[in-house]
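Record filed below.
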Amino acid sequence: MELRTLRCFVAVAEELHFGRAAARLHMSRPPLSRAIRRLESGVGAALLHRSPAGVRLTPAGAALLDAARALLDRADRVRVRVATAAGATTLTVGFLGESTDRGARRLADAHRGRRPGVEVRVRETDLTDPTCGLRAGLVDVALTRGPFDETGLTVQELRADPVGAVLRADDPPARRDRLTLSDPAGRRWFRFPAGTDPLWQAYWNGGQRREGPVVRGVQECVQAVLWNGTVGMAPLLGHGMPEEPAVVPVVDMAEEPAVVPVVDMPEEPAVVPVVDMAPSRVPAVWQEGDRNPLIRSLVGIATAAYRT
């Protein structure tokens, strides 16, 4: 069995769809189908049950999936070990905005456990650069959101999230269960600065030209909503609204406990699902032709971490 063929099989087994698996592997569907047929011929058993309703694993396919994942992980470990021995021990990862995505947290835990010899440096960018500094050579790989100009880049989708309208909690539309893009028509929306990727700008403006304040970061978006009743869009899962930080008591700094002033903070914005807007894609992105094994290893781990 070739590792390339096993990667094809794992992609189909995880996606349970030849089209999605082909897109994930950056190949067309016919050669993917042929690769799976050759694999089934080689092992002497049907691995997939194909029907008009979709694809599902046979008992033989389920058994091979576990073994294939283990083999591919071992191969990645070998590549990383060789790269580390050759001096490639650092990977710079770009993240978009003040992301609190639980997938990123799971990725950090899994990557540290499986690749402890690799130092990961993190670079956060504001919302004006969806490639997180990748085109400028500031990062090796970006974990971001689409859409954006993919010219010269390799893009692997990790997940897709539904999108909602961000509104003040006391805004009448915030009390609704769902909205359409036409509901906030005529309202002011937050916009990105001139020069921002046009595909990115158009998507988050609902495909229309908007008027409103120019923002760069997540907190600027939040404050524009809270202070001015501005409207915007945000993913419903991991939408970037900062979570409560962990509070760790310090017991040995003073005999008397400190008095912490209580500040009356405004209520968090509401995020109401928008039913006619395409989901927000969450991809891993790297430079086309970059064969750094540390990137391949991280993306492989991210694929599982972001879909859990």
Q: What stands out?
A: The two ends are 28 Å apart (CA to CA). Residues 238-266 have pLDDT under 50 and may be disordered.
